[in-house]
C-alpha cells in the first residue's frame, strides 16, 4: 500500500486540525478500492514551520503523493516549501483548496514542483485522482472533473466538478475516526452542518464557490456532535456561513447541544436580521460565542457589494441576544459573548461612513467589535471589478490581498484607520473599557469613534506596541486626551471610572473562568456597589432605544 500525505499549514494554534483534510481522508477511506491501494495520512504543521522542515517531513514520510491545503494565509509558505523539495525522487504534488481554486493554471505555472491542482470541492475529485493513480503515477487524467495538471510542458484543465448533490454521501471525519488520537487532546475543532450561502456579497468567495445551500442530515450532525463532545473537546467552531439561516434547524441543534451537556463552548456565525426571541432563548442555554457580520451601515457601499441590511431587524436581533441573559458587556475572555464584524474600505465608503458604522455598533454594546480592512480575494466578484479598475482598488498580494488604496480612502486615511483599529482592539476588545469610552465621548460631546481615533493616534505616538499597554496606560492616555481637549474635570475623573470598570471586568473574568453560585453573587454585589457608589459609567446606547443591557437586567433581578 502506498502513502498519500495530506498537509495543512495552519495559521492559528486553535485551528490546528483541518476539517478539509479530515473530509478528504474520510471520503477516500470509505471507498474499498482506494483503501486497498492508499494509506491516507494527515500532517498538521504551524504555518511558521521553516520550509526546509516541511520539505524534510515530506521526504521522511516516503509518500509518493503529497497534497497541500491552500488558503490565503498559508499559500506563500506552501510555495516556499515546494521549492525545497528535492529534484530527484520528488513525490507527485497536488495543491487543493480555496486559494488555488480561482486560478489553478496560474498556480501550476508558478510552481514547477506542483503536478496538479484540484479546484472546487475536493472529496470526489481527490478520490478519483487516487483511483487513477492506483496503477501508475503517470496515468492520464482525462475525464476527472475538477483537476488541472501538467502534461509535458503544457498544463491541461478539465471541466469543473459540480458540487456534491447529497452531503449524506460525505462521511464524517469524526465518526470515521480520521483524526485518530489527534482528536483526543484537542481544545477546538471545526464542524459544518451545511455548505454554501444564499447571499451574494461580492467581496466573499462563498457565492462563487458553493452558492446553493446543502445541509448534512440532522441525525448525522447530532451523532457527530455527540461524538465530539464525548471526546472531551472544549470548543466547537461551526463553519456554517449563517448558522440561523434555517431558524428551526438552528434551534433544534442548539437545544440538542444543551441537552448533551458537558462544558463546551460553541462558536457560530449568525445573521443579525434573522435573530429572534426563540433563538435567543435557545442559545442562552449554551456557553457560546456568536459572530455577527454587519460590515457597514452605509447603503451605497452595501448596494455596491450586493449585501443587504435592515437596521431595525439587525438591532432588534442583537438586542434579543443581549437581553437573554447570556450577554456579558464586559466579557473578559477572548471568545465569550457576541461579536459584530465591520469591514473598512468597502466601495464608496469614506472614513466618516466607517466611523458612523462603528458608532451604530458601539451603541449596541456587543462584547467585541471586529474591524478588518477589506480584502480583495481572487475568485470574488469584487476582485474581478478591482482588476478592471473599478473603485480604483490597490491591494497587497503579499498581505492576504488587503486593500491599500481606493477612490474614497487615501493612504494617509488608511494609516489612521489602522490606528483606530488598534485602539478598538486595545480599549474595547482587550480591556473592555466600553463604559469608560462611552462616558468620555459623552463628556466631550463627540462620537465614540472620535475618541477611539484620537486614542489610536496617541498610542502610535507613544511608540509602544499595543500589546504591551495596560489599564494604567489607557488611563494616562485618556486623561491626556481629555486635557488636550480642554476638559480638566474629565481628565481628573477618568482614572477612577476606568478602575471601577476594570474591577467589574476582573469579577466577570473570575465568574467566567470558574462559574459558581458564589462568584455570580460576588459579581452581582460588585456590580451594584460599583454602579451606586464607585461611579461605574452606564453602558452606551441611544437614548431612545429600549434598555437591552445584560447588566441592568441582572441588577434588576438581583
Ligand atoms: C474556518 C475559517 C477560518 C478560520 C481559520 C481556519 C483554519 N483552517 O485555519 C479563521 C476564523 C481563523 C479564519 C480567518 C480568516 N479567514 Co477564513 N474562513 C474559514 C471558513 C469559514 C472555513 C474554511 C474551512 O475549513 N472550510 C471547510 C472545508 C471542508 O472546506 P474548504 O476549506 O473549502 O475545503 C474543501 C476544498 O477547498 C478542497 N480542499 C481543501 N484543501 C485541499 C487539499 C487538497 C490536497 C485537495 C485535493 C483538496 C482540498 O476540499 C475540501 C473539501 O471539499 C472559510 C469560509 C468557508 N465556508 O469555507 C473562510 C475563508 C477560508 N477565510 C477567508 C479569509 C479571507 C480569512 C481572513 C483573511 C479574514 C480576515 N480576518 O480578514 C482570516 C485570515 C486568518 C489568518 N490567520 O491569517 C477566505 C479565504 C480566501 C482564500 N483565498 O483563502 C474564506 C473563503 C472566507 C470567504 N468567505 O471568502 N478563517
Ligand atoms: S459574507 Fe457571509 S453572507 Fe455574504 S456571501 Fe459571504 S458567507 Fe454569505
Count structural domains.
3
CATH superfamily of the largest domain: tm_1862 like domain
CA-to-CA gap between the ends?
Answer: 66 Å
Proper CATH architecture of the largest domain: Alpha-Beta Horseshoe
Question: Could you tell me which ligands this complex binds, including any ions or cofactors?
Answer: cobalamin, iron/sulfur cluster
The CATH topology annotation of the largest domain reads as pyruvate-formate lyase- activating enzyme
Taking all Cα atoms into account, the compactness measure Rg is 25 Å
Average pLDDT across residues? 91
Strand content: 15-25%
Helix share, percent: 40-55%
Q: Return the structural class.
A: alpha/beta
Number-wise, the strands total: 17
Folded structure, characterized:
There is one protein chain. This protein has 558 residues and is α/β, with parallel strands linked by helices. It folds into 3 domains: 2-157, Rossmann fold (3-Layer(aba) Sandwich); 184-374, tm_1862 like domain (pyruvate-formate lyase- activating enzyme); 410-558, no CATH class. The protein is built from 21 helices and 17 strands. It has helices at 19-29, 32-37, 51-61, 75-83, 104-110, 123-133, 206-209, 218-230, 247-260, 277-283, 299-304, 311-323, 351-364, 381-387, 411-430, 434-444, 448-462, 471-484, 488-513, 517-532, 550-557, and strands at residues 2-10, 38-46, 65-69, 92-96, 116-118, 147-151, 154-157, 188-191, 194-195, 214-215, 235-238, 265-270, 287-295, 337-344, 368-373, 394-396, 402-405. The strands form 4 sheets. Strands 2-1-3-4-5-6-7 form a 7-stranded mixed β-sheet, with helices on both faces. The chain has a 6-stranded parallel β-sheet with strand order 8-11-12-13-14-15. Helix 16 packs across helix 17. The radius of gyration is 25 Å and the shape is globular. The protein starts with a strand and ends with a helix. Residues 329-335 and 543-558 have low confidence and may be disordered. The structure holds cobalamin (B12) and iron/sulfur cluster. Residues 6, 10-12, 15, 18-20, 23-24, 67, 69, 71-73, 94, 96-99, 118, 121-123, 126, 190, 192, 204-206, 239, 241, 372, 375, 377, 400 line the site of cobalamin.
